[in-house]
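Hey forum,

I'm writing up a methods section and want to include a predicted complex as supplementary material. The small molecule is zinc ion. I've pasted the protein sequence and the SMILES. Can someone with a working setup run it? I'll credit the forum in the acknowledgements.
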Amino acid sequence: MTGERVRIALVLPDLLGTYGDRGNAIVLAQRLRWRSIGSELVTVLSSDDAVPEDCDLYLIGGGEDVAQVAAVRFLRRGAGLTRAVARGVPVLGICGGLQVLGTGFVTGDGQRHDGLGLVDATTEPGRGRAIGEVTTQSTLGGVGMLTGFENHLGRTSLGPGSHALGKVVRGVGNGRDEAEGAVTGHVVCTYMHGPVLARNPKLADLLLEWALGEPLAPVPDPPELKALRTERTRVHVRNRK
Amino acid sequence: MSDTTRETDEPTVDQTPAQRQSPDQRPSADGGRPPDRTQGADQHWKVVPAPVREPADTRRMGLRTAMAINAGKWAASLSQRLGLGSGGMIGGRLALTLQPDLLQRLATGRRVVMVTGTNGKTTTTQMVAEALRAKAPAVSNATGANMLDGHVAALLTQLDAPFAALEVDELHLAQVTERFEPSAILLLNLSRDQLDRVGEVRTVAASLQRALTQAPGAQVIANRDDPNIVFAAAGHPHVTWVSGGVRWRDDALNCPQCGAFIGDVDRDWRCQCGLARPPADWKVTDTGVLDSEGTHHELALALPGHVNRVNATFALAAALQLGGEEAPVLARVRRISQAAGRYDTVRLGGRRVRLLLAKNPASWLEMLDLVSSNDEPLVLVVNSREADGYDVSWLWDVDFEMLRGRPVQVAGDRALDLAVRLRYAGVRASVASTVEVALGGTEGGLPDVIANYTAFRDLHTRSRT
Ligand SMILES: [Zn+2]
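Reply by user p_vandermeer:
Happy to help. Structure tokens for the complex are below, copy them as they are.
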């Protein structure tokens, strides 16, 4: 953290940012502002040299197969992200970002690709796309119920180096063992769009606390956010969209 | 092709004999076989001359075609009389079933303008139809039935109309050019639409490119500021380039051809693979359009906003290409005040309001731009039904921040998502159970209601003019 500004890195939105994942950065910046803490958005594009290692929080969104492969190639170019993770800096990977940050993934053409290995998770294409509302009970302390929208073909298996972000109550998630997402240390990955931090303020604040290294002053959730969470976590009999 | 856009009646070199037929001929329904489009793998472009067609004559129409036309018209009028809607679609579908070749047969001898792109199709198609009517009758599917049966239905409405302006779904243009060669093809823009469909923009651009290779004799009028459109049209031999600007850039950061980073699409970019922004033949300005000779044409449209000056420029270019004259063409385009309810001022919930459609991030940006120039009450409505896409994450791709300082009412199935988005954007919003209730909470002025697809459709149905 430089001075009093939290540096939030939005990593490769030109490759990985198909589903409004930029919104996670908007949410983080605004939740800091509500507490009178400044922030700076550092956008890392595929035209840049490498990912800087001095940011306080990294966000990686989702994209298509080709974009994922290109993203891994780019992220390997410098060790910025890996070094930041070694310092305990939080990283949030969404959908394709989960696959990129995992140990490996198989693309639609059957090719296997190595990921960055920051979480212990491997992904293969499933039989059909998982599309719809997804609700989980989070394994992270104090986070509670998570809600999001999933849209992915990948089915993810977790290795011993990671645990799930949540247990699936509704929806598909990883497609294995009722797990959704993957967590290793402060690296948090999920299939949830929505964006995930817009719908789940406690997860947003947890990432910010990790970034700041200290507890945050509580802010009350705005009424429409409470109502949205109630609306979206209501368990339907079927996953009707 | 800047030198051809201003020409009037004289056919240009690239027109096929079929297109050169005088516009008052009836369609020759027996048509002859479509020209062979098989091309060598190494030869990307090959102009295949169309066979010289017999003068059109309905008496020589094949029996099967005549039956299909009659059945289609009968079904359409029956459906209309039974109150099942305008009846066009069912008629078109039935006629196509009876005569699968019907589209190309009905198109033969007419000069057809096809309009496609993610946003602005319906409005532009209506503008083209009106512009062409300055010269001769034109049929159109301006109600948005934009696949093959909708085209057949439109062509059936007036068999002797020499012109047709047809809106076509982006992924269906290739099916059209497989069947016949339009006189002009308008490529407006491409951007992400329904987010449930991944990778759509690149797939659509490739499909449009294939559609154009099947129509080497058509005049293409294309948006040079949209890299995806440039990719689709750059290889075509006859392109008129319109510079309309792009408000939404997030689908054009990388080269559609090779994936390299383009960055700022507002400058004259040139990619490492050779794809580059072409020079403009028509440049849209703050009040009108500049032609390639530097002459400015005031547009003075009844329809609002930059986006409609761009649409009108496409329509003007198409009409001039097909022999229209500028003054009467512009006079007609200027008078258009709504297109299938878009931009229409209607009565809703006891108030007069203006209805605006925004169905994806690019069109939301256009509409927010439009309303940011006024201070009227504002109601935003978002649904997430099948036709809208179930995922509303795209709300976070739209710069709602530009509404700061202005009270906003939200409604629709996903009013809460919208309210949360606005909260994080620093915009004061209140949630209303219905649009009518929201309008009750506003005072004075002529409120703007921006709604996404199914929400707009329902409001349009509920409203009165
Ligand atoms: Zn390129």
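Some notes you might quote in the supplement: The radius of gyration of chain B is 22 Å. Confidence is low (pLDDT under 50) at residues 1-57 of chain B.
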